[in-house]
Specification:
The protein is built from 13 helices and 26 strands. By secondary structure, the protein is of the alpha/beta class. It folds into two domains: about 400 residues, 3-Layer(aba) Sandwich (Rossmann fold); about 90 residues, ANL, C-terminal domain (GMP Synthetase, Chain A, domain 3, 2-Layer Sandwich), CATH 3.30.300.30. It has a five-stranded mixed β-sheet. Strands 16, 17, 19, 20 and 21 form a five-stranded antiparallel β-sheet that branches. Strands 2-1-10-9 form a four-stranded mixed β-sheet. β19 and β20 form a beta hairpin. α1 packs across α2, α1 crosses α7 and α2 crosses α5. The N and C termini lie far apart (about 60 Å). The N terminus is likely disordered.
């Protein structure tokens, strides 16, 4: 293959067109590698068509929202691409969510269908929601793929401005929202990221971050697809597996999050990776000590990427001397306009802190069932992040307008947890905050005012029954009263 197979985004309407290009021109080039198997672009194309045929038989039509509650299994790729082929709307979800949480999000998204890689599915059957598992009784995802069937033809009338993706976000205003993005916006995101990083078909991108998350979907799957590159997929993070994958498959691009790099630093896994040309962290600030320890142990510097669910990747630090600038998240990607403004939407002077606002072709259409007017001003999206620009146009983030808890890259709204904990019959009041960890993210701390004597494990078990694992408090303390200001505002800093 040639060194660069990047498509002309102006001539490609959606991700399916890009996949079709790849499968026709480079059918035997590996699209996906796992520890157990590898799949060429021809095979991924055929698998996506087989899933699309099964979905059509199930009743999926253009515009229908399809839940993808799937982990990093190879079937995620053809399932996602099948929704694109059909003109349906993919709604990736964490498969670790409880059935009740999944059902609530499915109802919010208006989804009538779902594909699941685990047994944690909402009740099947009925007219309201149809769940299809990875394995088991027909229909199943693997059964569809094994059938090798194809639809007679692709549905007509699928336009670039049609909705393609609905994805969960904490949102700039503080409550979880479902972000809506079109086919054209996903292509624009892949275009911006790939042109900035100069990826080619020869690159191999390690996907250990979740594909259901915007980081994994955009910076792993879409980036791979856009250039006809290869994605090396690991189902779960384990230090030795990551180090072995980096070396064995000569990975060239390693996207991660701060906690991944922190755990690798403390693990016994070690190695050198001469093929690795870009290693970057997203999902939260990367502590300088994590950068230094990783560079010392593995000989590789970690760049920081800044992005959000609403827009995908926004900036990346591609400085040659990361040792001096590793706390900076870099310049805006090509095609993204970024400003740092004050409360009157005026640009602040270089070096002064303000709110980061952006424009770009990948920026969302809006939120599902939620008014987005409050997060746009003058055509710019208000990210809710605070930062400053230096004289070279590089951005350094300094905080948030709203406080979320960053658990391994997951942005957790403390008010959601507080609502759940208050439902416990023995709880009078509660406040939830984040406690910094040595990896640069946070762990969840619940400070509970008990109505009667109780133990910490009761709070933990209550949360486990209602919430996904990453939302369960790691620390539970009991206090006499929630600290509040004279006006009743919770003083989280005093917890």
């Amino acid at each position: 293959m040639s060194a660069d197979v990047s498509p002309d985004a102006d001539r490609l309407d959606d991700l399916w067109t890009i996949l079709l290009r790849n499968s026709e021109k480079w059918p035997d080039h590996p699209a996906l590698i796992t520890p157990e198997a590898r799949f060429t672009y021809r095979e991924v194309h055929e698998q996506a068509l087989a899933v699309a045929a099964g979905l059509m038989e199930t009743g999926v039509q253009p515009g229908d929202t399809m839940i993808l509650a799937m982990g990093n299994v190879p079937e995620f790729v053809p399932c996602f691409l099948a929704t694109v082929y059909l003109g349906a709307v993919a709604a990736p979800l964490n498969p670790a969510l409880t059935p009740a949480e999944t059902r609530t999000l499915a109802e919010t998204a208006g989804a009538r269908f779902g594909l699941f890689s685990t047994s944690r599915t909402p009740a099947r059957g009925g007219e309201s929601f149809r769940a299809v598992p990875l394995d088991g009784d027909e229909p199943s995802i693997r059964g569809w793929i094994a059938s090798g069937r194809r639809p007679a033809e692709r549905p007509t009338g699928i336009q670039p401005d049609a909705l393609a993706l609905v994805q969960g976000s904490s949102g700039s205003m503080g409550k979880p929202k479902l972000v809506e993005r079109t086919h054209a916006q996903l292509v624009a995101e892949a275009t911006c990221f790939s042109r900035a990083t100069k990826l080619t078909c020869d690159d191999r991108i390690l996907a250990v971050v979740p594909l259901f998350h915007c980081h994994g979907l955009g910076n792993c799957l879409l980036a791979t697809l856009f250039h006809g590159a290869t994605m090396v997929l690991l189902e779960r993070f384990e230090p030795h597996s990551v180090v072995n994958a980096l070396a064995q498959w000569r990975v060239t691009v390693f996207p991660g999050v701060p906690v991944i790099f922190g755990i690798l630093n403390e693990s016994k896994a070690t190695g050198r990776f001469p093929a690795l040309k870009l290693c970057f962290s997203a999902g939260g600030p990367l502590p300088e000590q994590t950068y230094r320890a990783f560079k010392k142990k593995f000989g590789v510097g970690i760049a920081q990427l800044y992005g959000c669910t609403e827009a995908g990747a926004i900036t990346i630090n591609l400085d040659e001397d990361l040792d001096r600038s590793n706390q900076c998240v870099g310049r805006p990607l090509t095609g993204i306009e970024l400003r740092v403004v004050d409360e009157a939407s005026k640009d602040v002077p270089v070096g002064e802190v303000g709110e980061v606002v952006i424009k770009g072709g990948g920026l969302m259409r809006g939120y599902r069932k939620v008014d987005a007017d409050g997060v746009f001003r003058g055509g710019y999206f208000l990210t809710g992040d605070l930062g400053r620009l230096d004289e070279r146009g590089r951005l350094t983030l300094t905080g948030r307008r709203k406080l979320f808890i960053n658990v391994g890259g997951h942005k957790i709204d403390p008010m959601e947890l507080e609502e759940v904990i208050r439902r416990h019959e023995d709880v009078e009041d509660v406040v939830v905050v984040g406690e910094p960890t040595r990896f640069g993210d946070e762990m969840i701390k619940a400070a509970v005012v008990p109505a009667r004597p109780m133990e910490a494990w009761q709070i933990v078990e209550h949360c486990r029954a209602c919430l996904s694992p990453h939302k369960v408090p790691k620390i539970v303390v009991f206090i006499d009263a929630v600290p509040r200001s004279p006006l009743g505002k919770v003083l989280r800093g005093k917890v």
